[in-house]
Design a protein that fits this description.
Blueprint: H1 2-10, H2 19-32, H3 35-42, H4 48-53, H5 61-70, H6 81-89, H7 111-120, H8 123-138, H9 146-165, H10 169-172, H11 177-189, H12 199-215, H13 219-228, H14 238-249, H15 254-306, H16 308-320, H17 323-327, H18 336-349, E1 360-361, E2 367-368, H19 373-376, H20 378-392, H21 400-438, H22 447-460, H23 471-480, H24 484-487, H25 491-513, H26 519-547, E3 554-558, E4 562-566, H27 571-576, H28 579-589, H29 600-616, H30 627-647
Antiparallel strand pairs: 1-2, 3-4
């Protein structure tokens, strides 16, 4: 009876049958629109007598009519819904005409209407009502005013019910992206700061909204929502993790995926930390329990023998529930599954040292509340609860093995996405560096001399500087040292590499004279090397496409349409393809590009190794590379190109 509680708080000593309370009820109905709250009071059995005493008073005719409507029913019956709607909104009111105005007033005026749709299963109409009436109203509420917070919390409860009913894909199909954005905006503007909406309800809302965003392929918006409210997400919930990974796949948002990756690593670290420390935690907990057993035996030994109730509790706890047996086990020799189960059982049992109403179940299925707290005193019981809470804070949710597998798999996928998204951004960053370099580097080079220098460097690369896996790969790498012409079939690759090599050698001479600043120049040169990798991949795919009748499409990120699949060699291909596109293509379809017996996984591994080296250097147009970092990147880029020559079929 929320309304009566509110009224009592404001009018101390007032009663249900007072005129003040009846007037207050009418105001809540007519001016606030709190129809259901008024109905809950009227439907209460103790209010029937009050209504009977005011039947002849015209002022309370509405309350009498409502009371008669309910009769002896305790809860709202479905056949009364339309009658209630007529009393609240007028005789001519049609709930399915969503554009109409109603005679109802107050911030709560749409709540009964919303409840009616939800209760009758009109999901599509509920969403339409939310978009047209409820969202605009709630967006204007102030989450610092108590009455507004109360109103918002009530609408939000109905909204949570509606979202739960919308999980089915067939129903979700009718929900528009505009609706989802309205939910996002509502949560951002007012809901997340409403203290009357508890944490669990907000968390549930976030998880459902992410599910809707995943289904509607709102990838970037979904990840943006996650990083804005990531403290409300439970990454121990595997469906939530799967939805977030699915959103990440096509979001092309390196920063957001990086945040998610870090949060999942924290979950993984907690599991690993728990598994590594579990023997230590078991030892602490078991030592406390056995110490309490000794305390009870020393201080109450006689009672254990004489008092049948104390004896029953003591024996039930330590022997029937096998607590002593668990505490004396050799924890280090047990498999993790048994260690985890014992620790959880002991933590549960420890409550019996703190309070008397904790129920335990023995191995035989007997149930009892052993009141051991009466035998050890409050201080020792409190000590145990502090220990229990400390250990419990380190214990992950149950199902650790499955969760660990899923989190590990999610991290592998996110690592792949991060590499791809980083390479997409790297392509544009390299282009920006090259454009900046053109403003400063106007010195011509001798193309023949530059080609000779490149050949010297390419052939001198050793297998020790490559990420090799077996003797066959080592042999291919050595052979590729004599196949530089295959790398230079593309005129653009040839121009970039010969130019970069000539400039590098010139810079090295200046470095030896120690009379130049090299950071900016090293960055300019490295941009040419990296761009050559991109151009080489582009050339290989175009050549492969010319040699084959069909090849899989390439995924590119287009500003207008997002992730789009395009034909190799098309106008969109040349305009939008990036290193990220090539990495994804290599991961998904690399086998068709490789020589026989070449392991695609190994190719992806050494390509990823090169990417990680670039990423670790913080390469960008704003960063001046030091000479040591530039030397490493140059060598690894040339090694990568030589390995690609060795492994790619074309």
């Amino acid at each position: 009876m929320d309304i009566y509680q509110e009224f009592s708080a404001r009018h101390f000593g007032a009663y249900l049958d007072s005129e003040e309370f009846l007037d207050y009820m009418l105001r809540q109905w007519l001016l606030k629109g709190r129809h259901l709250d008024v109905c809950h009071v009227i439907d209460h059995p103790s209010f029937t007598k009050v209504i009977n005493e005011c039947r002849d008073d015209e002022r309370y005719a509405l309350l009498v009519e409502l009371s008669d409507l309910y009769g002896s029913e305790i809860t709202l019956a479905s056949q009364y819904n339309e009658t209630l709607l007529a009393l609240a909104y007028g005789e001519e009111f049609d709930p399915f005409e969503l554009d109409q105005d109603t005679k109802a007033k107050g911030d709560w005026r749409y709540h009964l209407w919303f409840y009616f749709f939800n209760n009758e299963g009109h999901v599509a109409d509920s969403w339409q009502l939310f978009n047209s009436k409820i969202y605009p109203l709630c967006a204007t509420l102030n989450n610092t005013r108590a009455d507004h917070m109360q109103t918002l919390a009530r609408y939000f409860n109905e909204l949570s019910v509606l979202m739960d009913k919308t999980r089915d894909p067939d129903i979700l199909e009718s929900v528009t992206k505009k609706t989802i954005m309205n939910l996002y905006d509502l949560f951002l503007q007012v809901v997340h700061n409403d203290t009357l909406i508890d944490f669990a309800t907000k968390r549930s809302f976030c998880e459902r909204l992410i599910h809707m965003m995943k289904y509607k392929e709102m990838h970037s918006v979904g990840l943006e929502f996650y990083i804005t409210f990531n403290d409300l997400f439970d990454l121990n919930d595997i469906p939530t993790v799967m939805s977030l990974v699915n959103l990440s796949k096509s979001a092309y948002d390196y920063h957001a995926v990086h945040v998610l990756h870090g949060d999942m690593q924290a979950i993984q670290y907690r599991i690993e930390k728990y598994k590594g420390d579990i023997v230590s935690q078991l030892t602490k907990v078991s030592e406390y329990i056995l110490r309490m057993k000794n305390v009870i035996e020393e201080q109450h030994g006689g009672k254990i023998q004489e008092d049948s109730f104390i004896q029953a509790d003591f024996n039930f706890f330590f022997y029937e529930c096998e607590i002593e047996e668990m505490c004396t086990a050799n924890f280090s020799e047990l498999p993790f599954e048994d260690q985890d189960a014992i620790l959880r059982n002991l933590l549960n049992a420890m409550i019996c040292f703190y309070k008397a109403d904790k129920t335990l179940t023995s191995e035989e299925g007997n149930v009892k509340e052993p009141a051991l707290n009466l035998l050890i005193g409050w201080e020792l019981g409190n000590e145990g609860m502090k220990l229990r809470n400390r250990v419990l804070s380190l214990v992950p949710d149950e199902g650790i093995e499955y969760r660990e597998i899923m989190i590990t798999d999610a991290l592998i996928q996110l690592n792949e996405f991060l590499t791809e998204f980083y390479l997409k951004d790297l392509s544009s960053e390299v282009e920006a560096v090259i454009q900046k370099a053109d403003q400063y580097d106007l010195e011509p080079i001798d193309p023949n001399q530059a080609a000779t220098l490149l050949e010297e460097t390419f052939t001198s690369l050793t297998s020790q500087s490559a990420l090799l896996f077996n003797e066959e790969e080592k042999e291919r790498f050595e052979k590729a040292g004599r196949q530089l012409p295959l790398l230079l079939k593309s005129n653009e690759v040839k121009r970039l590499l010969t130019t970069a090599e000539a400039k590098w050698r010139e810079m090295e001479k200046g470095f030896q004279r120690e009379n130049q600043q090299f950071g900016q120049k090293a960055t300019f040169i490295m941009a040419d090397y990296v761009k050559a990798v991109e151009e080489f991949f582009g050339h290989v795919l175009v050549k492969a496409r010319a040699d084959k009748q069909t090849m899989p499409l390439v995924d590119v990120a287009m500003p207008e349409s997002g992730l789009t699949s395009v034909e190799i060699g098309s106008e969109e291909y040349y305009h939008y393809v990036t290193l990220g596109s090539f990495y994804h293509y290599l991961s998904a379809n690399g086998t068709s590009l490789l020589k026989e017996n070449v392991d695609k996984g190994h190719v992806v591994a050494y390509f990823t190794h090169w990417v990680n080296s670039i990423r670790a250097s913080s390469f960008s147009k704003e960063v001046e590379l030091n000479i040591e970092t530039a030397q490493v990147l140059r060598r690894e880029t040339l090694v990568l190109l030589r390995r690609l020559v060795a492994d790619l079929a074309n």
